[in-house]
Structure formats: structure tokens, C-alpha cells
Design brief:
GO terms for molecular function: DNA binding; sigma factor activity. By secondary structure, the chain is mainly α. 72% of the residues lie in helices and 0% in strands. Helix 1 (2-8) packs across helix 2 and helix 3 (39-64) crosses helix 7.
Length: 146
């Protein structure tokens, strides 16, 4: 749930993404779930791919609908994210999609570089360089000396 929330930045959408991933896993593998090598990795990859699809649809919809002038945060947003974390979340939104995915998988989900590479379908070197660039960009945005 947290992975989806950090990727799509919207609790109801994150819940839908996770529910759809579980439903697809059950529909596709059902009782043969034990046959999968790593069901957790399979589910995590499904969540990341579903989040990408949601973000792609949002981008397409925003191209046709003018953005609202004033963004009003949801009532539960302050409960979900402490004020100190909100600054980091806002800075994450300025990163590229892949950079955001790598950092969320690495620091929030505590995955190894190999697991992240598997989940995103990239090489370990790409994960390392993307994480380094993302951390540098976050440091500049948050004005943290490295």
C-alpha cells in the first residue's frame, strides 16, 4: 500500500492499484501461487506497473482538461504525512518517474539493487546511477549538503 501511495500520491488510487494487483495475481495464478518463485516480487512489479499506467492516464487526461488554479489538499493528507515528510514527498514529485521509483523501492521498501533491477526491468548499474542522480537532485531541492 505504501509503495503505491508514494508512486501515485493519492490514497484512493493507491488502494485501487493494490487491489487490482492482488485480483490479477489471484485470477492468473489462483491456487498455483506456490508455483511462483517469488510472489512478493511478482506483486511488487504488478503494483509498480499499475502505478505507471495510472500516471500515464493522468498525464493524458491533464492534456485535455485544464488544471485547476488552486490545489486543495485532501483532509486526510496531513494525517498520512507528517509535515517534515511532506517536504520530501513534494521534492520526490519533481524527480523523473524512474528516479522516484528507484528511491521508493530502495529506501521505503528496503529492496536490494538486484531486486529493484528485477522489479523495474533494468540493470543494476542503471539502478545505481539513477539512485545517485536522484539523491543529488533531492539534495539540491532540499538544500542538503552532500
Amino acid at each position: 500500500m505504501r509503495l503505491a501511495l508514494l508512486l501515485v500520491d493519492d490514497l484512493p488510487t493507491a488502494e485501487d492499484v493494490v487491489q487490482d494487483a492482488f485480483a490479477a495475481l489471484l485470477h492468473r495464478h489462483g491456487r498455483r501461487l506456490a508455483d511462483l518463485d517469488d510472489p512478493e516480487a511478482y506483486l511488487r512489479t504488478s503494483v509498480v506497473n499499475s502505478a505507471r499506467s495510472v500516471l500515464r492516464r493522468r498525464r493524458t487526461a491533464r492534456a485535455y482538461i485544464p488544471e485547476r488554479q488552486h490545489h486543495v489538499p485532501s483532509a486526510d493528507q496531513s494525517v498520512l504525512l507528517a509535515e517534515t515528510h511532506q517536504e520530501v514527498i513534494n521534492a520526490l514529485q519533481h524527480l523523473t518517474r524512474r528516479q522516484r521509483e528507484v528511491l521508493v523501492l530502495r529506501y521505503w521498501s528496503d529492496l536490494t539493487e538486484a531486486q529493484i533491477a528485477d522489479t523495474l526491468g533494468v540493470s543494476r548499474g542503471t539502478v545505481k546511477s539513477t539512485a545517485n542522480r536522484a539523491l543529488n537532485a533531492l539534495g539540491r531541492q532540499l538544500e542538503i549538503p552532500r
